[in-house]
Each structure stands twice: as structure tokens, then as C-alpha cells.
Amino acid sequence: MIVLVSASSLSASPIEAKPVTDFLVMADMPYTIIDHKNLAPTGLLGKKIAQTPHGFLMHLGDMKAGAEPCTDKLLTTHKQLLSTLTEQPFVFTPGDNDWTDCDRENLTPRYDELERLAFIKELMFDKAYLEKVTTLTGFKRQTSMTENARWQFADVEFMTLHIAGTHNGRRQVLKSDKQMAYHHADLRDSNNLSWLAQADPKAKAYVIAFQADIYTHKTEQAACSELVTANCDGFKIYRDALAQFAQSVAKPVLVIHGDTGEFCQQKLAANLTRLNAPGDYMFSDIAQVSITESKDSNGINWQITSLKTNKPLVRICN
């Protein structure tokens, strides 16, 4: 007896697609002609982004060089470039070049920094941005400071905090009313710390992203506060809060920032690592971060590579 077997019955069972557990992060660009060429659709980074599976792309602020004036036209042009880099959600948090440094004396024209902050928020967080970013699992914005966001990805909770250079808008206040600028800085501190405290205790790990390099730019001065507004360290409150957060959750915490040139990582504590994202003239590159399950008690590992070279990041931050 001859038994006929259909080809479909001999085919292998469908293989489920492996879930994407990588994300991309960049900062401090485009600054130069090289950045613009690399980020173009036909450029090295533009093509790499298109070829690399990723859940989302984060830009940690400073989307223009500090030597360029903060005109509506320039900011809008750079926003259009960045927002079209990926088909996946694009997440942005502001940096000092985007608003606090717009009053520099060597710039023409100069702007009131608080006015530029209002402009950059309206420009970046428009309807198209929100339609895409809200597809991230559990995406939320902070009601009291809408540039702060949080979402879940690969069992990890992500959050952005608005921490910009110039000690979060407390230094080099050249056109805004200083007392008003200090008041806004106090509000940012309060909102940021509140947002951090709302972390989901069920997450297996946490990624906390912002613009300022709070570690390289630390000082020996007292922490800034409502009572101490000048000659103070505007970042100390965050270094202390993040160290305490990592200790209290006892789970892996990855802090990512931009602001300074090095593309590097550093172990700050047993479960606390910082990543200085590429950019700032020195590194026209994007970090690719893979989230993997570890076999030890921590549960999550971070594997960081250069998108440009596909080589693991080995540089240690000073």
C-alpha cells in the first residue's frame, strides 16, 4: 500500500520569532557635518539603524552643538532628522544645548532659556511623537513634568528624567530672571525625584536616562536646594538618589547619560552601572544595548556594543 503524505504535513513547525530585546541610545548629535552624513538614510549610522532590530531609539538631548544659535529653524531641522531615524518609537529628553545654553554671549541670536525650554517641549513632543511613543508597553508621562516618561521593555522598566547640563539650569543664567530659573530648577528636582520614587517594584531591572553627566561634573560643593541656589552642586542630589535607589531595589540599574565626550561605561556599585552614550564631537556613533537573562541572582545583564563597528564597549569611564 502506498501512503501519500502531503508536503505541508512534512514541513517543520513554524519557528516563533525571537523577541527583540535590544534598544538604541544616542546623545549630543548632530553636531557636525560628519554626524549629518552618518545619520542620513544612506549614511553609515542611518543604514545600521535600519538593519538592526531594536525596540526603540532614545536620544538623550543636545541635538545641536553649543556653538550654534537655538533658532526655530535649526531646532526644527534637527528634530525632523532625528524623528525619522527609525520606524520604532523615538524617545527624547532635553539637554542643555537645547535650552539652558541658548543665552550664551557668543551666540546670535540669544534667547531666554525658559522660553526655549517651552519651545523645545512643544516642538519635540508633538502629536506624531506621542502616537508612536505611546505604543511602548505601559508608556506614561509625568503629569507635572510631561517630558519625563516611563515604559516597560523586556521585563525592564525605563524612565527618563529631565536633568540638563549647567547643573540642571542653575548656572550661567544670562537672560532669564535668575530667581525664576532657580524656582524652575527646584521644581525639576522635585518632579525628577518623585518620578524615580514611582518605579515599578515588579520590574526585573531599571534603566534611567537623562542628559547631564552628573558624575564627571561633580564638585565638592554642597547640594543645591531652595535655600542654597548659588555656588552649589546641582547634580549631587541625583548622584545620592540614584545610589540609594540602586541599593533599595537590589536589582540591576543602568544609568545612561550624554553630555561629555567619552563613549564608556563604569561600575558604580554592585548593581549600578553608568553608560556615557556616544556623541559630543568625539564619537559619531550609537550604543546598542542588549538585555539578556543572567544565570546569577541579578537576573538581567547589559551587553553594550557600538552600532557603527558592532564591537563590544570596553572603554571604562574615568
TrEMBL record:
Q: What domain of life?
A: Bacteria
Name by which UniProt lists this protein: Calcineurin-like phosphoesterase domain-containing protein
Organism of derivation: Pseudoalteromonas porphyrae
